[in-house]
Please model this.
Amino acid sequence: MIRHLLHRFAEAALVLLVVSFLAFALIGLMPGDPIDLLVNADPNVTTADAERLKALYGLDRPLLDRYLAWLGGALQGNLGFSRLYAQPVGAVLTGPLLNTVLLMGLSLVLGLVVAVPLALLAVRRPHGVLDLVVNAGAFAGLSLPSFWLPLLLILLFAVTLGWLPAGGVHAVGDPSLASRVTHLVLPVLTLTVLNAGVYLRFTRGALLEVVAEDFMRTARAKGLGLGAALVRHALPNALLPLTTVVALHLGTLLSGALVVEVIFAYRGLGKLTYDAILGNDANLAMAVLMMATALTLACNVLADAVYGWLDPRVRFDG
Amino acid sequence: MAEAQAVATVRPSVVAGTAGAVLASLAALCVVGPWLAAALGIDGTSVDLFNRLAPPNGAHWLGTDELGRDYLVRVLEGGRVSLVVGLAGALTAAVIGALIGIVSGYAGGRVDAALMRLTDAVIALPLLPLLLIVAAVDLSAWGVRASGVNDVLRIVVIVALFGWPTVARVTRSAVLSVRRRTYVLAAEALGAPAPHVLRRHVLPNVAGPILVAATLGIGNVILAESVLSFLGLGVQPPTASWGNLLTDAQTTLVHAPRLALVPGALIFTAVLAFNVLGDGLQGMLDRRR
Amino acid sequence: MRFLVLVCSLAVGALGAAVSASAQETLRIGASQFPSTMHPSIDEMLAKTYVQSMTLRPFTGYGHDWELRCFLCTELPTFENGGAERVERPDGSVGVRVTYEIHPDATWGDGVPVTSDDVVFAWEFGKHPQSGVVSREVYTDIRDIEVIDAKTFTLELEDLEYNYNAINDLQPLPAHLERPIFEADPANYRNATLFDTAPATPGLAFGPYRVSEVEIGSYLVLERNPTWYGVTPAFDRIIVQVVENTAALEANLLSGSVDMIAGEVGLPLEQALAFEERHGDRFQVTYEPGLVYEHLEANLDNPILADRRVREALLLAIDRQAVSDQLFAGRQQVAASRVNPLDWVHEPDVPTYERDVERAQALLEEAGWRPRPDGVRVNDAGERLSFEFATTAGNRSRELVQQFIQAQWAEVGVEALVRNLPPRVFFGDYTNRRQFPGIAMFAWISAPEHLPKTTLHSSMIPSPNNGWTGQNYTGYADPEMDALIEAMEVEFDAERRAELWSRLQKLYARELPALPLFFRSNAHIWPTWLEGVRPTGHMDLSTLWVEEWRPAEPGR
Model:
């Protein structure tokens, strides 16, 4: 088991290395570089200025050299300077990291709180009216464009009703808890709806499979009510696939909210990723990308391990 | 109670049929609509600054956009692009995925292990940030001119690049289960060449799961295209797509919300229909077994 | 329950906004851009200039009348007052020596006076190849600095040009704080400067305000600087809050969390117009036409566009007035040439090319382009009147105008193939190595009476031969234009220079090396209770006069 885990982690590290090179190369292939942007419409910047600045920022060196330099630094914990913020990358990351964890954590928990009870209610009568409604709801959640729902919510709650702010982390100059909470409502609501769709579908599917199994019939025969049988016997069994889904979802914690963060101007890692890529801030983009990739890979390994641990039927032979 | 019983008898084929019908009519509208409009003298490119953001009326059923263009025609033209990208992207992903899945499942051993590790790795990547980076790469460095058609091709390639693993996994497990069947084993034992076995026995049996996975993939591709376009890295104006129509609508959200409502609702409908269709097909497949 | 709490806290928030207008100790400004660095000389960025105009002052700059004036210096040196002196060197070159006196009371926030040494340090830093300044020309043009005393210094400039006494970009730096950091490691200075590592250091400012707190990407707090030598500003604190999403920025203004929106880094014009329509009674909305010149550049190596008649026809086919009226409510002025009407050298008497479809068609016929059934004209060689038409992707307003132009050109049989590129591609090789094959749409930002040498002189056509120097992207080469520019550079008599400017504008409007579109306007929004905000329209921003901003007298 431990050997297997170590093996998987080593594999994940290799994937991370490959992705880091590919991402670095792709960012290098992104057209123009920060210096070309400076020339943007300023008649006083000469080409000589541009070349001097490129040399200064090391942009005139071959891609591989730059990658190796970056990798060397990154392995020693030096992620370089963010061009967009003129600060060490680490200093830029901390605030947004916390914001994202808060946003994603809340919506993950709320998604489960909505999905699991609904799924339990639905499978009391498989293919009944409630089940049909719940299933339709799950499909809707799965199919909603992640950028459209926020627009609808903004239109309703911020523009028409004026109840909630349309964006930001907290009101200007007011970092109080109340202000933070009001700004979290709409993004959390959006992500909860999107997450709940996925969870609902998985929980329902898993529950339906369990319900059909023999031990459920035994439990019912022993006189246990349907609800009690579901909660006591079916749910623990259905939790297995759900845990896997949640663990995999946890992996998208850092990058999954990108669109929602961009629309709500919520300063989290997703928005930072977007700004860094569009603003050609290579160091910052690499840092957020690697963090997101590492977390996704780690959660995959974790999901694997949890599965093996919870389900004695699975044996590892790696 | 009687109702519940009635509902319980809804067959997957009916569900799939309904979804298919919705999609067919949507596609027909998008293909025929702009032609019809052109025949009626309305085209989506003629601008009229004196008729900007007009509310829906007899001449313009969905009103006009910021440049006074007929919004219905714009939306239908956008639908063409979005649906074409969805179908082409999912198809490309399905072809790549099916090939890898069949090779992996049929060859087994080291090849299988290597391909499946690759599949796992691609599935485990953070999709959206990587999509953004790939989409931001400048193709003109390799002499690819930006144009509406190239834009669409570019997006198709990008989404296919990340979309194939699901199909590959499904195909592989289907191939594995087929291979264990006695008639396949018998055919192999009788010395039938691999291509023959693949064509005669394996392909017909894995076609169903591939079809289901591909159908479910279309919805995701449409979402991916619209997200990229929405973030400004997908299809570029003046070529319309449902995604970039929504981007534009953001700025007029307050005074002309319909510009945001319509394309969003269409993306939602199309994706929902593809998901329901895929699920229905899956149900039919399960019943057949 | 949670929802109730939310509603209550919102109500309280609204109340708070209503109250805050009466007790004005703090002014909250909303902006749409956060400065990437706070160092005055590294990276040019509008948001930084906006903030720094409150914490620092340039030696010289342009006033509301668009005339050059002193901010940090006491008097503009001229030949007449003896502050400037012509230098003829043995090698035959001609330079100039200009003497400035720093305001006697100018003092950094930590009590150290602003001295000539700060100027010398700024110069040494700027001309250092590893400094990271964007444009080194400002510093390399200075041959030598002679320190006369702590408050007086003389610059010897390499060349003598008409604007010899404008040193707007030579920003003095606090040598007592920054020199040790720079000298320790010049290459790393841009990462180690106190402006970014400790921006709240008092000694980094000598203006009416100094930075007291920075939250990266979100806000900056400015406090009154006790060492400021000018009029005491009315507000104790100014908070510059950055909300990049302009829709959210607008919402913040409406909810009262910001008092005003910076005109220079605020809402796009279209959004401000819609805003004024709905909330104009609660705010003052002022539109200031500026020096941002939106235009179409044609690559003159393209045989279709090399023909002046075709360019004129293209311009005549566009109803620029309708765009201005309908898209921008008349707030965005149609340009006749590249000189803004507010500039004193502006020449009103030039050809203006109002929309005239018939004339456009006649010109195209004359140039050999005949209509075809498919709508696109062809010439005798069978070539189609078709070219690529590019602009910066993501600039909503440009994209709208572009699609409008495309449609209007289609009406006269011209096919423009739209190709939009992200700014970093567009301003990369595509324009600055002249790779655009057809027409590129973008804007130049310049100073008042800015000599368009880099964009119009034939020596400034970027090519491998000149190391891709210059911004004459169209490839316009006209001996008459070259001669005019060269004459203007060394013409010190304002009247004679105005005459040359007039000829330049007429030539430009006649030859149309580029097709003029508009001068962009900024929309300034401030509350009705605020007085003294005066937009300038040029690159010296309204915050250079922030000490004049004050709440209106009660009862008015």
Notes: Residues 89-123 of chain A form the longest helix (35 residues).
